[in-house]
Write a structure and sequence with these properties.
- The protein has 15 helices and 25 strands.
- The protein is α/β, with parallel strands linked by helices.
- The protein has three domains: 7-191, ANL, N-terminal domain (Rossmann fold), CATH 3.40.50; 197-366 and 385-415, Rossmann fold (3-Layer(aba) Sandwich), CATH 3.40.50.12780; 437-542, ANL, C-terminal domain (GMP Synthetase, Chain A, domain 3, 2-Layer Sandwich).
- The strands form five sheets. A nine-stranded mixed sheet has the order 2-1-11-10-12-13-14-15-16, sandwiched between helices.
- α8 (278-291) links the parallel β12 and β13 (299-302).
- The model has no long low-confidence stretch (mean pLDDT 91).
Protein backbone atom coordinates (compact mmCIF):
# COMPACT_ATOMS: atom_id res chain seq x y z
CA UNK A 1 0.00 0.00 0.00
CA UNK A 2 1.41 3.37 -1.02
CA UNK A 3 1.47 6.43 1.23
CA UNK A 4 -1.87 8.22 1.06
CA UNK A 5 -3.91 5.07 0.29
CA UNK A 6 -5.32 4.50 3.75
CA UNK A 7 -8.73 2.76 3.75
CA UNK A 8 -11.64 4.76 5.17
CA UNK A 9 -9.36 7.54 6.31
CA UNK A 10 -7.49 5.24 8.71
CA UNK A 11 -4.06 6.53 9.68
CA UNK A 12 -2.35 3.91 11.85
CA UNK A 13 0.31 4.86 14.39
CA UNK A 14 3.24 3.28 12.60
CA UNK A 15 6.92 4.13 12.21
CA UNK A 16 6.52 5.18 8.57
CA UNK A 17 4.19 7.95 9.69
CA UNK A 18 6.94 9.39 11.87
CA UNK A 19 8.47 10.78 8.71
CA UNK A 20 7.90 14.53 8.26
CA UNK A 21 4.25 15.12 7.36
CA UNK A 22 4.69 18.65 5.99
CA UNK A 23 5.54 19.28 2.35
CA UNK A 24 9.02 17.77 2.32
CA UNK A 25 10.32 20.33 -0.13
CA UNK A 26 9.87 23.06 2.51
CA UNK A 27 11.90 21.34 5.22
CA UNK A 28 15.21 23.13 5.71
CA UNK A 29 16.82 20.49 7.90
CA UNK A 30 19.36 18.00 6.62
CA UNK A 31 20.98 14.77 7.73
CA UNK A 32 24.75 14.91 8.04
CA UNK A 33 27.13 11.97 8.40
CA UNK A 34 30.64 12.16 9.83
CA UNK A 35 31.92 10.76 6.54
CA UNK A 36 30.91 14.03 4.88
CA UNK A 37 27.65 12.88 3.26
CA UNK A 38 24.66 15.21 3.48
CA UNK A 39 21.03 14.55 2.60
CA UNK A 40 17.93 16.68 2.47
CA UNK A 41 14.80 15.19 3.95
CA UNK A 42 13.34 14.40 0.51
CA UNK A 43 16.57 12.56 -0.30
CA UNK A 44 16.38 10.77 3.04
CA UNK A 45 12.84 9.57 2.25
CA UNK A 46 14.12 8.25 -1.08
CA UNK A 47 17.00 6.46 0.64
CA UNK A 48 14.61 4.80 3.09
CA UNK A 49 12.49 3.54 0.20
CA UNK A 50 15.58 2.34 -1.67
CA UNK A 51 16.80 0.40 1.36
CA UNK A 52 13.39 -1.24 1.84
CA UNK A 53 13.33 -2.18 -1.84
CA UNK A 54 16.88 -3.49 -1.75
CA UNK A 55 16.17 -5.71 1.24
CA UNK A 56 13.02 -7.07 -0.38
CA UNK A 57 14.97 -7.79 -3.59
CA UNK A 58 17.49 -9.75 -1.51
CA UNK A 59 14.70 -11.98 -0.26
CA UNK A 60 13.81 -10.38 3.07
CA UNK A 61 10.12 -11.04 3.73
CA UNK A 62 7.56 -9.24 5.83
CA UNK A 63 7.64 -10.39 9.45
CA UNK A 64 11.33 -11.30 9.48
CA UNK A 65 13.85 -9.86 11.91
CA UNK A 66 16.80 -7.90 10.48
CA UNK A 67 19.79 -7.34 12.77
CA UNK A 68 22.01 -4.26 12.40
CA UNK A 69 25.61 -3.95 13.60
CA UNK A 70 26.91 -0.49 12.77
CA UNK A 71 28.31 2.72 14.18
CA UNK A 72 26.00 5.73 14.46
CA UNK A 73 25.65 6.60 10.78
CA UNK A 74 23.07 7.79 8.26
CA UNK A 75 22.66 4.10 7.36
CA UNK A 76 21.46 3.30 10.84
CA UNK A 77 18.85 6.06 10.74
CA UNK A 78 17.65 4.72 7.40
CA UNK A 79 17.31 1.28 9.02
CA UNK A 80 15.25 2.84 11.83
CA UNK A 81 12.60 3.60 9.19
CA UNK A 82 13.04 1.17 6.30
CA UNK A 83 13.02 -2.11 8.22
CA UNK A 84 9.88 -1.54 10.35
CA UNK A 85 8.11 0.18 7.45
CA UNK A 86 8.45 -2.91 5.25
CA UNK A 87 6.78 -4.94 7.98
CA UNK A 88 9.96 -6.41 9.44
CA UNK A 89 11.46 -6.16 12.92
CA UNK A 90 14.57 -4.01 13.39
CA UNK A 91 16.99 -5.60 15.83
CA UNK A 92 19.59 -3.10 17.01
CA UNK A 93 22.56 -5.21 18.10
CA UNK A 94 24.62 -4.08 21.08
CA UNK A 95 28.07 -4.07 19.49
CA UNK A 96 29.75 -3.62 22.88
CA UNK A 97 28.67 -7.01 24.13
CA UNK A 98 31.12 -9.88 23.97
CA UNK A 99 31.33 -11.87 20.74
CA UNK A 100 29.43 -14.82 22.23
CA UNK A 101 26.73 -12.51 23.65
CA UNK A 102 26.29 -10.81 20.28
CA UNK A 103 25.86 -14.19 18.65
CA UNK A 104 23.45 -15.28 21.38
CA UNK A 105 21.22 -12.24 20.90
CA UNK A 106 21.11 -12.63 17.09
CA UNK A 107 20.28 -16.32 17.44
CA UNK A 108 17.72 -15.76 20.21
CA UNK A 109 15.97 -13.05 18.16
CA UNK A 110 15.76 -15.39 15.18
CA UNK A 111 17.36 -12.91 12.77
CA UNK A 112 18.07 -14.36 9.32
CA UNK A 113 19.50 -11.16 7.81
CA UNK A 114 22.34 -9.05 9.20
CA UNK A 115 23.47 -5.61 8.04
CA UNK A 116 27.03 -5.20 9.33
CA UNK A 117 29.91 -2.77 9.22
CA UNK A 118 33.18 -4.61 8.38
CA UNK A 119 34.44 -3.92 11.91
CA UNK A 120 31.85 -6.36 13.25
CA UNK A 121 32.12 -9.18 10.72
CA UNK A 122 34.42 -11.21 13.02
CA UNK A 123 31.46 -11.54 15.40
CA UNK A 124 29.63 -13.46 12.67
CA UNK A 125 32.31 -16.09 12.07
CA UNK A 126 32.06 -19.63 13.44
CA UNK A 127 31.39 -19.74 17.15
CA UNK A 128 28.84 -20.59 19.81
CA UNK A 129 25.94 -20.56 19.22
CA UNK A 130 25.67 -21.37 15.54
CA UNK A 131 23.99 -18.60 13.56
CA UNK A 132 21.27 -19.64 11.14
CA UNK A 133 21.77 -16.69 8.83
CA UNK A 134 20.54 -16.52 5.27
CA UNK A 135 22.26 -13.31 4.20
CA UNK A 136 24.84 -10.77 5.33
CA UNK A 137 24.76 -7.26 3.89
CA UNK A 138 28.14 -5.68 4.50
CA UNK A 139 28.89 -1.97 4.35
CA UNK A 140 31.87 -1.60 2.03
CA UNK A 141 34.71 -4.08 1.57
CA UNK A 142 34.37 -7.35 3.49
CA UNK A 143 38.12 -7.92 3.25
CA UNK A 144 39.15 -11.51 3.91
CA UNK A 145 35.90 -12.35 5.72
CA UNK A 146 35.06 -16.00 5.21
CA UNK A 147 31.41 -16.28 4.26
CA UNK A 148 29.64 -18.99 6.30
CA UNK A 149 28.32 -21.90 4.20
CA UNK A 150 24.91 -21.29 2.71
CA UNK A 151 24.93 -17.55 3.49
CA UNK A 152 24.46 -14.98 0.72
CA UNK A 153 26.59 -11.84 0.72
CA UNK A 154 25.72 -8.41 -0.65
CA UNK A 155 27.18 -4.91 -0.34
CA UNK A 156 24.99 -2.22 1.21
CA UNK A 157 25.61 0.64 -1.21
CA UNK A 158 25.60 -1.61 -4.27
CA UNK A 159 22.10 -2.92 -3.56
CA UNK A 160 20.65 0.40 -2.36
CA UNK A 161 22.09 2.42 -5.26
CA UNK A 162 20.50 -0.05 -7.69
CA UNK A 163 17.07 0.14 -6.04
CA UNK A 164 14.25 2.48 -7.05
CA UNK A 165 13.50 5.50 -4.80
CA UNK A 166 9.96 4.22 -4.34
CA UNK A 167 8.61 1.27 -2.43
CA UNK A 168 5.16 -0.26 -2.18
CA UNK A 169 4.93 -0.25 1.60
CA UNK A 170 2.59 -2.91 3.02
CA UNK A 171 -0.32 -2.26 5.33
CA UNK A 172 0.91 -2.80 8.90
CA UNK A 173 -0.91 -3.43 12.16
CA UNK A 174 0.19 -0.65 14.51
CA UNK A 175 0.36 -3.19 17.38
CA UNK A 176 2.81 -5.46 15.56
CA UNK A 177 6.48 -5.58 16.61
CA UNK A 178 8.66 -2.91 15.06
CA UNK A 179 11.92 -3.10 17.01
CA UNK A 180 13.80 -5.15 19.54
CA UNK A 181 17.12 -5.03 21.34
CA UNK A 182 18.78 -6.77 24.25
CA UNK A 183 19.52 -5.38 27.68
CA UNK A 184 23.10 -5.61 28.91
CA UNK A 185 22.39 -7.12 32.31
CA UNK A 186 25.24 -7.98 34.65
CA UNK A 187 23.95 -11.51 35.29
CA UNK A 188 22.99 -14.24 32.82
CA UNK A 189 22.35 -13.78 29.14
CA UNK A 190 21.05 -10.45 27.82
CA UNK A 191 17.25 -10.23 27.71
CA UNK A 192 15.31 -9.06 24.66
CA UNK A 193 12.80 -6.23 24.89
CA UNK A 194 10.49 -5.35 22.03
CA UNK A 195 8.24 -2.50 20.96
CA UNK A 196 5.31 -2.10 18.62
CA UNK A 197 4.81 0.62 16.03
CA UNK A 198 2.14 2.16 18.23
CA UNK A 199 4.45 2.27 21.26
CA UNK A 200 7.24 3.99 19.33
CA UNK A 201 4.77 6.47 17.86
CA UNK A 202 3.29 7.41 21.25
CA UNK A 203 6.73 7.63 22.87
CA UNK A 204 7.82 10.03 20.12
CA UNK A 205 4.72 12.18 20.64
CA UNK A 206 5.38 12.38 24.37
CA UNK A 207 9.05 13.29 23.85
CA UNK A 208 8.07 16.12 21.50
CA UNK A 209 5.27 17.38 23.75
CA UNK A 210 7.42 17.22 26.89
CA UNK A 211 10.51 18.86 25.40
CA UNK A 212 8.54 21.31 23.29
CA UNK A 213 6.77 22.68 26.35
CA UNK A 214 9.79 22.83 28.66
CA UNK A 215 9.20 25.98 30.73
CA UNK A 216 12.68 27.49 30.98
CA UNK A 217 15.50 25.28 29.64
CA UNK A 218 16.25 22.05 27.85
CA UNK A 219 13.78 22.58 25.01
CA UNK A 220 14.05 20.59 21.80
CA UNK A 221 12.53 21.76 18.55
CA UNK A 222 12.79 21.99 14.79
CA UNK A 223 15.37 24.79 14.94
CA UNK A 224 17.82 22.72 16.99
CA UNK A 225 20.76 20.78 15.56
CA UNK A 226 20.68 17.30 17.01
CA UNK A 227 23.52 14.81 17.43
CA UNK A 228 23.16 11.56 19.41
CA UNK A 229 26.02 10.59 21.68
CA UNK A 230 24.01 7.67 23.01
CA UNK A 231 24.47 4.68 20.69
CA UNK A 232 21.59 4.05 18.32
CA UNK A 233 21.56 0.43 19.47
CA UNK A 234 20.73 1.59 23.01
CA UNK A 235 16.94 2.02 23.39
CA UNK A 236 16.60 3.76 20.01
CA UNK A 237 19.03 6.45 21.25
CA UNK A 238 16.33 7.27 23.81
CA UNK A 239 13.82 7.94 21.02
CA UNK A 240 15.29 11.22 19.78
CA UNK A 241 16.13 10.13 16.20
CA UNK A 242 12.41 9.49 15.62
CA UNK A 243 11.48 12.83 17.21
CA UNK A 244 14.13 14.77 15.27
CA UNK A 245 13.10 13.19 11.97
CA UNK A 246 9.42 13.94 12.46
CA UNK A 247 10.28 17.60 13.12
CA UNK A 248 12.65 17.84 10.15
CA UNK A 249 15.42 18.89 12.52
CA UNK A 250 19.01 18.96 11.26
CA UNK A 251 20.67 15.76 12.44
CA UNK A 252 24.37 14.91 12.71
CA UNK A 253 25.57 11.31 12.96
CA UNK A 254 29.13 10.97 14.31
CA UNK A 255 29.96 7.38 13.36
CA UNK A 256 32.29 5.74 15.84
CA UNK A 257 32.50 7.84 19.00
CA UNK A 258 35.82 9.64 19.17
CA UNK A 259 36.10 12.67 21.40
CA UNK A 260 37.90 14.81 18.84
CA UNK A 261 35.33 13.91 16.17
CA UNK A 262 32.42 14.72 18.47
CA UNK A 263 33.85 18.12 19.35
CA UNK A 264 34.69 18.88 15.72
CA UNK A 265 31.15 18.12 14.60
CA UNK A 266 29.68 20.17 17.45
CA UNK A 267 31.73 23.15 16.26
CA UNK A 268 31.41 22.72 12.50
CA UNK A 269 27.73 21.72 12.35
CA UNK A 270 26.51 23.96 15.16
CA UNK A 271 25.10 21.14 17.30
CA UNK A 272 22.76 22.51 19.98
CA UNK A 273 21.16 19.42 21.52
CA UNK A 274 22.59 16.05 22.50
CA UNK A 275 22.46 13.34 25.14
CA UNK A 276 24.94 10.87 26.63
CA UNK A 277 26.02 9.07 29.78
CA UNK A 278 28.04 10.93 32.40
CA UNK A 279 31.39 9.26 31.62
CA UNK A 280 31.26 10.36 27.96
CA UNK A 281 30.54 13.98 28.87
CA UNK A 282 33.45 13.95 31.32
CA UNK A 283 35.82 12.89 28.52
CA UNK A 284 34.40 15.57 26.23
CA UNK A 285 34.87 18.30 28.84
CA UNK A 286 38.47 17.23 29.43
CA UNK A 287 39.19 17.34 25.69
CA UNK A 288 37.32 20.64 25.27
CA UNK A 289 39.65 22.25 27.81
CA UNK A 290 42.69 21.18 25.83
CA UNK A 291 41.24 22.17 22.45
CA UNK A 292 39.55 25.31 23.87
CA UNK A 293 36.19 24.36 22.33
CA UNK A 294 33.32 26.68 23.22
CA UNK A 295 30.40 24.58 24.49
CA UNK A 296 28.35 27.45 25.87
CA UNK A 297 24.67 27.30 25.11
CA UNK A 298 24.69 23.58 24.25
CA UNK A 299 21.87 21.53 25.72
CA UNK A 300 23.00 18.19 27.16
CA UNK A 301 20.71 15.53 28.60
CA UNK A 302 22.42 12.99 30.87
CA UNK A 303 20.93 9.54 31.41
CA UNK A 304 21.93 5.93 31.87
CA UNK A 305 22.85 6.63 35.49
CA UNK A 306 23.06 9.44 37.99
CA UNK A 307 24.39 12.89 37.04
CA UNK A 308 27.18 13.55 39.57
CA UNK A 309 27.13 16.99 41.11
CA UNK A 310 30.80 17.53 40.25
CA UNK A 311 30.13 16.88 36.58
CA UNK A 312 27.12 19.19 36.64
CA UNK A 313 29.34 21.91 38.11
CA UNK A 314 31.97 21.47 35.40
CA UNK A 315 29.35 21.50 32.64
CA UNK A 316 27.69 24.67 33.95
CA UNK A 317 31.09 26.33 34.14
CA UNK A 318 31.46 25.53 30.42
CA UNK A 319 28.12 27.24 29.84
CA UNK A 320 26.28 23.97 29.06
CA UNK A 321 22.58 23.71 29.81
CA UNK A 322 22.95 20.34 31.53
CA UNK A 323 20.04 18.37 32.96
CA UNK A 324 19.20 14.78 33.70
CA UNK A 325 16.58 12.22 32.84
CA UNK A 326 15.63 8.76 33.95
CA UNK A 327 14.26 5.58 32.46
CA UNK A 328 15.29 2.09 31.46
CA UNK A 329 15.54 -0.12 28.41
CA UNK A 330 12.32 -1.87 29.36
CA UNK A 331 10.50 1.48 29.41
CA UNK A 332 11.43 2.45 25.82
CA UNK A 333 13.99 4.63 27.58
CA UNK A 334 12.58 7.91 28.87
CA UNK A 335 10.23 8.13 31.87
CA UNK A 336 11.19 11.35 33.69
CA UNK A 337 12.95 14.54 32.57
CA UNK A 338 14.45 17.17 34.81
CA UNK A 339 13.27 20.37 33.15
CA UNK A 340 13.71 23.24 35.58
CA UNK A 341 11.01 25.82 36.15
CA UNK A 342 11.69 29.52 35.58
CA UNK A 343 12.03 29.98 39.33
CA UNK A 344 14.48 27.10 39.59
CA UNK A 345 16.61 28.40 36.72
CA UNK A 346 16.91 31.70 38.58
CA UNK A 347 18.15 29.96 41.74
CA UNK A 348 21.72 30.55 43.00
CA UNK A 349 24.43 28.44 41.41
CA UNK A 350 24.88 26.01 44.31
CA UNK A 351 21.15 25.40 44.53
CA UNK A 352 20.99 24.78 40.80
CA UNK A 353 23.58 22.04 41.16
CA UNK A 354 21.20 20.19 43.46
CA UNK A 355 18.23 20.81 41.20
CA UNK A 356 19.89 19.79 37.93
CA UNK A 357 20.99 16.38 39.21
CA UNK A 358 17.44 15.17 39.97
CA UNK A 359 15.91 12.63 37.58
CA UNK A 360 12.99 15.03 37.33
CA UNK A 361 9.26 14.78 36.77
CA UNK A 362 7.36 12.16 34.73
CA UNK A 363 7.07 12.99 31.04
CA UNK A 364 3.60 13.29 29.57
CA UNK A 365 1.49 10.10 29.61
CA UNK A 366 3.82 8.35 32.08
CA UNK A 367 2.59 6.97 35.39
CA UNK A 368 5.57 6.78 37.73
CA UNK A 369 5.37 6.03 41.44
CA UNK A 370 7.57 4.99 44.31
CA UNK A 371 5.93 1.96 45.86
CA UNK A 372 5.74 0.00 49.08
CA UNK A 373 6.15 -3.80 48.91
CA UNK A 374 2.38 -4.10 48.35
CA UNK A 375 2.77 -1.64 45.41
CA UNK A 376 0.79 1.10 47.14
CA UNK A 377 2.31 4.54 46.59
CA UNK A 378 4.68 5.87 49.23
CA UNK A 379 4.07 9.30 50.71
CA UNK A 380 5.97 12.36 49.53
CA UNK A 381 9.52 12.13 50.83
CA UNK A 382 9.31 8.43 51.62
CA UNK A 383 11.45 5.89 49.76
CA UNK A 384 10.10 3.00 47.73
CA UNK A 385 10.83 1.05 44.58
CA UNK A 386 10.28 3.04 41.39
CA UNK A 387 7.61 1.37 39.25
CA UNK A 388 5.98 2.34 35.95
CA UNK A 389 2.82 2.14 33.92
CA UNK A 390 2.44 3.71 30.50
CA UNK A 391 1.58 3.18 26.85
CA UNK A 392 5.06 2.25 25.60
CA UNK A 393 6.52 -0.13 28.19
CA UNK A 394 7.79 -3.43 26.84
CA UNK A 395 5.23 -6.19 27.26
CA UNK A 396 7.91 -8.54 28.49
CA UNK A 397 11.20 -10.21 27.64
CA UNK A 398 11.31 -12.02 24.31
CA UNK A 399 10.90 -15.77 24.80
CA UNK A 400 11.42 -15.49 28.58
CA UNK A 401 8.09 -15.88 30.36
CA UNK A 402 9.49 -16.25 33.87
CA UNK A 403 11.52 -13.03 33.71
CA UNK A 404 8.56 -11.24 32.09
CA UNK A 405 6.29 -12.15 34.97
CA UNK A 406 8.83 -10.90 37.49
CA UNK A 407 9.29 -7.66 35.53
CA UNK A 408 5.53 -7.03 35.59
CA UNK A 409 4.86 -8.36 39.09
CA UNK A 410 1.61 -6.91 40.42
CA UNK A 411 0.77 -5.15 37.18
CA UNK A 412 3.56 -2.55 37.42
CA UNK A 413 6.88 -2.60 35.60
CA UNK A 414 9.62 -2.83 38.24
CA UNK A 415 12.73 -0.70 37.81
CA UNK A 416 14.83 -2.17 40.60
CA UNK A 417 15.63 1.38 41.73
CA UNK A 418 14.88 2.95 45.10
CA UNK A 419 13.65 6.53 45.04
CA UNK A 420 11.35 9.16 46.47
CA UNK A 421 9.30 12.08 45.21
CA UNK A 422 9.84 15.52 46.68
CA UNK A 423 7.26 18.20 47.35
CA UNK A 424 8.31 19.72 43.99
CA UNK A 425 6.97 16.66 42.19
CA UNK A 426 10.44 15.58 41.10
CA UNK A 427 11.82 12.09 41.54
CA UNK A 428 15.11 11.44 43.31
CA UNK A 429 16.84 8.07 42.91
CA UNK A 430 18.56 7.04 46.12
CA UNK A 431 20.02 3.71 45.01
CA UNK A 432 19.58 0.43 43.19
CA UNK A 433 17.77 -2.28 45.14
CA UNK A 434 20.74 -4.58 44.52
CA UNK A 435 23.39 -1.90 45.16
CA UNK A 436 22.15 -0.34 48.40
CA UNK A 437 24.56 -0.78 51.32
CA UNK A 438 23.04 -1.97 54.58
CA UNK A 439 25.41 -1.27 57.45
CA UNK A 440 24.37 -2.16 60.98
CA UNK A 441 20.75 -2.37 59.83
CA UNK A 442 20.82 1.14 58.29
CA UNK A 443 20.85 1.97 54.58
CA UNK A 444 23.67 3.97 53.03
CA UNK A 445 23.13 5.47 49.57
CA UNK A 446 26.04 4.72 47.25
CA UNK A 447 24.69 7.33 44.80
CA UNK A 448 24.85 10.09 47.42
CA UNK A 449 28.43 9.20 48.31
CA UNK A 450 29.42 9.13 44.64
CA UNK A 451 27.88 12.56 44.10
CA UNK A 452 29.78 14.02 47.05
CA UNK A 453 33.07 12.47 45.91
CA UNK A 454 32.54 13.92 42.42
CA UNK A 455 32.75 17.41 43.95
CA UNK A 456 36.35 16.94 45.10
CA UNK A 457 38.89 18.64 42.86
CA UNK A 458 40.74 16.21 40.64
CA UNK A 459 38.08 13.47 40.67
CA UNK A 460 37.13 12.09 37.26
CA UNK A 461 34.61 9.46 38.38
CA UNK A 462 33.84 7.23 41.33
CA UNK A 463 31.92 4.16 42.44
CA UNK A 464 30.89 3.10 45.93
CA UNK A 465 30.33 -0.58 46.61
CA UNK A 466 29.53 -2.69 49.66
CA UNK A 467 32.26 -4.82 51.24
CA UNK A 468 31.70 -7.41 53.99
CA UNK A 469 32.29 -6.31 57.55
CA UNK A 470 32.37 -8.59 60.61
CA UNK A 471 30.82 -6.02 62.93
CA UNK A 472 28.43 -4.11 60.67
CA UNK A 473 27.65 -6.77 58.02
CA UNK A 474 28.52 -4.31 55.21
CA UNK A 475 30.51 -1.13 54.88
CA UNK A 476 30.95 1.22 51.90
CA UNK A 477 34.17 1.25 49.90
CA UNK A 478 34.92 4.13 47.53
CA UNK A 479 36.77 3.56 44.26
CA UNK A 480 37.96 6.80 42.69
CA UNK A 481 39.51 7.56 39.30
CA UNK A 482 41.60 10.78 39.20
CA UNK A 483 41.61 13.20 36.32
CA UNK A 484 44.56 12.84 33.95
CA UNK A 485 47.75 14.20 35.46
CA UNK A 486 46.18 14.84 38.87
CA UNK A 487 47.74 13.45 42.05
CA UNK A 488 44.54 12.83 43.95
CA UNK A 489 44.66 13.03 47.75
CA UNK A 490 42.60 10.37 49.56
CA UNK A 491 42.46 12.60 52.64
CA UNK A 492 40.75 15.34 50.61
CA UNK A 493 38.03 12.86 49.66
CA UNK A 494 37.60 11.72 53.26
CA UNK A 495 37.49 15.33 54.43
CA UNK A 496 34.70 16.17 51.97
CA UNK A 497 32.63 13.21 53.13
CA UNK A 498 33.26 14.02 56.80
CA UNK A 499 32.19 17.61 56.16
CA UNK A 500 28.96 16.35 54.56
CA UNK A 501 28.32 14.10 57.55
CA UNK A 502 28.86 16.95 60.00
CA UNK A 503 26.44 19.07 57.99
CA UNK A 504 23.82 16.32 58.14
CA UNK A 505 23.86 15.55 54.40
CA UNK A 506 24.81 11.92 55.07
CA UNK A 507 24.89 9.90 58.29
CA UNK A 508 28.21 9.75 60.11
CA UNK A 509 28.32 5.99 59.62
CA UNK A 510 28.12 6.63 55.86
CA UNK A 511 31.73 7.82 55.62
CA UNK A 512 33.75 4.89 54.22
CA UNK A 513 36.92 3.74 55.93
CA UNK A 514 38.24 2.34 52.64
CA UNK A 515 38.93 4.79 49.79
CA UNK A 516 40.98 3.42 46.91
CA UNK A 517 42.46 5.32 43.96
CA UNK A 518 42.11 3.22 40.79
CA UNK A 519 42.99 3.66 37.13
CA UNK A 520 39.55 2.83 35.77
CA UNK A 521 36.11 1.52 36.70
CA UNK A 522 34.43 -1.43 35.05
CA UNK A 523 31.45 -0.45 32.89
CA UNK A 524 28.62 -2.27 31.21
CA UNK A 525 28.34 -2.26 27.43
CA UNK A 526 26.29 0.95 27.49
CA UNK A 527 28.66 2.87 29.77
CA UNK A 528 27.01 2.33 33.15
CA UNK A 529 29.05 1.42 36.21
CA UNK A 530 29.21 -2.37 36.49
CA UNK A 531 29.01 -2.72 40.25
CA UNK A 532 28.73 -6.48 40.10
CA UNK A 533 32.11 -6.61 38.33
CA UNK A 534 33.55 -4.06 40.76
CA UNK A 535 32.40 -6.08 43.75
CA UNK A 536 33.83 -9.25 42.24
CA UNK A 537 37.17 -7.52 41.73
CA UNK A 538 37.62 -5.47 44.88
CA UNK A 539 35.63 -7.32 47.53
CA UNK A 540 37.87 -10.34 46.99
CA UNK A 541 40.90 -8.14 47.58
CA UNK A 542 39.66 -6.92 50.95
CA UNK A 543 37.75 -10.03 52.05
Amino acid sequence: MMIGEMPNGDYPLIVRHLMPTANRSTIAGEIVDASGLRFTYPQFADRVAKLAGALAACGVKQGETVAVLDWDTHRYLECFYAIPSMGCVLMTVNIRLSRDQVRYTIDHAGAKTVIAHPDFLPMLTAGDPDLNLERIIVVGDAGDFEVPPGVEMAEFYAITDAAAPEFDYPEIDERSRATMFYTSGTTGNPKGVYYSHRQLFLHTMSILATFGTAPAQGRFGADDVYMPITPLFHAHAWGFPYAATLLGTKQVYPGRYKTDTLLRLIEEEGVTFSHCVASVLRMMLDEAKVRKVDLSGKKMLIGGGALPEGLARAALQHGIDIFSGYGMSEACAVQTINHLTATEVAAPFEEQLQLRTRPGRPILLCDVRTANPDLSATAVGEEGEVVFRGPWLTRGYWRNEEASEELWRGGWLHSGDIGKFGADGALRITDRVKDVIKSGGEWISSLMLESLISQVEGVSESAVIAVPDVRWSERPMALVVPQDGYDLDVQAIRARLTEAAEAGAIPRYGVPEKIKIVDELEKTSVGKLDKKALRARYVEQVG
